[in-house]
Amino acid sequence: MKIHRIYLVLAISLAIGSCGNRYQLILTSPEKLTVGGKLSASVQEKNQKPIDSIWYYLDGKRFSNPDNIDVSGLKLGRHAIVAVVFFNGKQKKLTNTLTVFPKQRPEIYTYEVVNTYPHNDKAFTQGLEFYNGFIYESTGQYKESSLRKVELKTGRVLQKKDLEDNIFGEGMTIFNNKVYLLTWQNGFGYIFNLQNFEQENTFSYGQSKEGWGLTHNNTHLLKSDGTERIWTLSPETGEELSHIEVYTIDRKVDKLNELEFINGKIYANRWQANSIVIINPKNGLVEGIANLKGLQKLAGQTGDDNVLNGIAYDAKNDRLFVTGKDWNKLFEIKLVKG
């Protein structure tokens, strides 16, 4: 187990009284840590001036031994290390950022096309779901965004609700007989009646300023916002309860877009990448990456705009469906380890 020996040093000069009594406090801690590594932190005054005491915190939780900080339960991604330093009747708060990386490499997948179905090449797909034998889809673009119920075999739109002209539709999911549908930059999501598509309510975004992808894990909604974060939401209120950050062994995985929850894992499209990343929902670990680049051309598209974006799963028959923005085909595929 090792600590990456890259240290972030924060030096803060604090003037107290005369120039000769100026404190220069330095919080030293690792900038990066591999899962299972050892974490420590320390504070020094540059000129060895006396310090009365120091309280250390990791993500707001105080710890007593800065030489061996318990990191066993840390999720991947960024964390805050804080030291509150007491001296000369004063106190000062110092903060460093720690990023935790996994040591497990992702599995690499290719794909096989099992079946091909027609898809509306004017549907700028943002969300996709298979439910009770039908495809449900949300589409984007201003003045063109909509919610649709689609016949799988023919691609025929059976039911459609257009969104307001100033709305750019994003991901959607079906949960408890309701359709939850995100907007991109309007700061809220819709809740529609599953049967008639009538609007029942809305919910507001919190720290996640944008809406990209949406799915659920049978108890909560899971939302992406175009960053490396996936948020857990209350289905009753839309409140953001927690989040994970998605990482591979050496970098964050951002631009996470359309989501689907499949057999306990989060499957996510990555914007403009024509791929699927398979994510552990407990800690953000990328467990697999599927390269689906060849499908874009098969669906009559090229370039960075009309890319793969749409994942749906038929759990009863173990069928995985994918499509993309303005693609003329929807594919049933099987992922194959490379």
Question: How would you characterize this protein structure?
Answer:
This protein is mainly β and 338 residues long. It has 2 domains: 7-101, Immunoglobulin-like, CATH 2.60.40; 107-337, 7 Propeller (Methylamine Dehydrogenase, Chain H). 1% of the residues lie in helices and 53% in strands. The protein has an 8-stranded mixed beta sheet with strand order 22-23-24-25-9-28-27-26. The longest helix is centred in the last third of the chain and has 5 residues, at 294-298. Mean pLDDT is 91; it is low at 1-18.
In a nutshell, what does this entry contain?
The chain is mainly β.
Task: Reconstruct the topology from this structure.
Layout: E1 7-14, E2 23-30, E3 32-34, E4 42-45, E5 53-58, E6 61-63, E7 77-87, E8 90-101, E9 107-118, E10 125-131, E11 134-139, E12 146-150, E13 157-162, E14 169-175, E15 178-183, E16 188-193, E17 199-204, E18 214-216, E19 221-224, E20 229-233, E21 240-245, E22 256-262, E23 265-270, E24 275-279, E25 286-291, H1 294-298, E26 308-314, E27 319-324, E28 329-337
Parallel strand pairs: 3-8, 9-25
Antiparallel strand pairs: 1-2, 2-4, 5-6, 5-7, 7-8, 9-28, 10-11, 11-12, 12-13, 14-15, 15-16, 16-17, 18-19, 19-20, 20-21, 22-23, 23-24, 24-25, 26-27, 27-28
